[in-house]
Design brief:
17 strands, 407 residues, 2 domains, Rossmann fold, Nucleotidyltransferase, domain 5, 7-stranded mixed beta sheet, single chain
């Protein structure tokens, strides 16, 4: 057996150093997933010179897009080039006499059938890159094939859809002998500043896709995102020429949060500015006034709150918020409120309002289960800050006229 390398390991990586049958790293760009597994792969082959290692993708079109390059970089960085022979399509572990002991190969699962996959039966490690593209068939072929004693199968991926086979296997139905972590560039202590700056720019210029690309959120399709293309994150100061402030509150039920939102309207630019938010889970009734006081100064203004809890409105009113009132609701008020939000040239969310930012990205219409068509029905999730925002601007929202309104 060889010697272990001295490798700087992030705190989240410590559980991955212990033997586990399945190891999964999911997350966004710059998180260091590939670098971590590449380092682990080099160390594994140094510790066991006879280890056979396979790096797989669903489709392997070119080795320049595989893990081979980053593994080669780690071999050179660790100063162990004399222990390996790097060829065009594989990496060989060299023994003391210079002969090959173990091999690392790179292949695509689509290149294998039930018969040809048997060639991997003696391999002790497998690393499935871009596992979000792994098909159910590939999983069924690979897992029982890598079956050496103490063998391990690693998976790294940027999440795409919650229905992907890798999500079902490692996230929804996590096996007992598995370790899984969701990491992002902020969790990577070795993330270079140029990547962090790219993330900051992306956050500001393309907030709709920021969650998927950089945070490892599921890839929501823009045509079902209710506020797609209509919002951005930005630090700003309140302009005295703006209208407001307007306040809205949404009550928590069970696992839902209490939310209070402060916003302003720039009438000249037709922009809605979300300046402050307070957000809290499990706020007891008697603690609700103190929760509202976290939004300093809001007691001076009208606060429009969800009218589904009139007893809460009454309680908060008796405890220092005399101007709180129930928001008006009417048939189609949700749709009218959304139409009003979408009518602004831009919804600008302050960077200190992370919950509102997340909901702007995740607030969606339903899709037809069979056709995948976008439906007019709204998914009742990721909407607590959005609802509070609707209540805040309720006086500015026009009701749709109907035949009965004109009688």
């Amino acid at each position: 057996m060889g010697a272990a390398l001295k490798i700087e390991t992030p705190r989240w990586g410590l559980p991955f150093l212990e033997p586990k049958r399945y190891k999964g790293l999911k997350g966004g760009r710059g998180s260091g997933k590939s670098h971590f597994f590449a380092e682990l792969a080099v160390e594994a082959m140094l510790l066991d010179p006879y280890l056979d290692f396979v790096c797989v993708r669903e489709v392997q079109r070119s080795l320049k897009f595989s893990a081979k390059k980053v593994i080669e970089e780690k071999i050179r960085a660790f100063g162990v080039s004399d222990k390996f022979k790097i060829l065009d399509n594989e990496i060989r572990r060299l023994g003391k006499t210079g002969g090959t002991t173990g091999n690392m190969i790179f292949t695509g699962m689509q290149d294998h059938t039930a018969d040809t996959i048997k060639s991997l039966e003696g391999f002790g490690r497998a690393w499935f890159e871009e596992a979000s593209r792994m098909s159910a068939r590939s999983r069924e072929l690979l897992l029982p094939t890598i079956r050496e004693e103490d063998s391990e199968i690693w998976f790294s991926w940027n999440p795409d859809q919650p229905t992907d086979p890798i999500e079902k296997f490692l996230v929804r139905d996590t096996p007992e002998n598995a370790v899984v972590a969701h990491i992002n560039f902020a969790d990577n202590p070795f993330c270079p500043e140029v990547i962090k700056e790219e993330a900051r720019i992306w956050h500001k210029t393309d907030p709709d896709s920021y969650g998927h690309v950089w945070l490892g959120d599921y890839n929501t399709k823009s045509d079902d995102q209710i506020l797609s293309g209509r919002w951005q994150v930005e630090d700003f100061t309140i302009n005295p020429a703006w209208d407001g402030p307007y306040y809205g509150a949404d009550w928590g039920f069970s696992t839902d949060p209490n939310v209070v939102i402060e916003c302003y309207v720039d009438p000249r630019e037709n922009r809605l500015y979300v300046s402050r938010e307070i957000w809290g889970l499990g706020v007891e009734v008697e603690d609700t006034p103190d929760f509202f006081h976290r939004m300093s100064g809001c007691h001076k203004y009208v606060i429009r709150a969800d009218n589904a809890r009139p007893e809460m409105v009454s309680y908060v009113k008796r405890h220092g918020f005399a101007r709180i009132r129930s928001a008006e609701k009417w048939p189609g008020s949700v749709e009218d409120g959304i139409s009003k939000l979408r009518s602004y040239a831009r919804i600008v969310v302050h960077s200190e309002c992370p919950e509102t930012e997340q909901e702007c990205r995740l607030y969606k219409y339903k899709r037809d289960r069979k056709t995948d068509d976008v439906l007019p029905d709204i998914i009742d999730k990721h909407n607590h800050c959005i609802d509070a925002l609707r209540y805040a601007i309720e006086p500015l929202t026009k009701k749709r006229s109907s035949f009965w309104d004109n009688l």
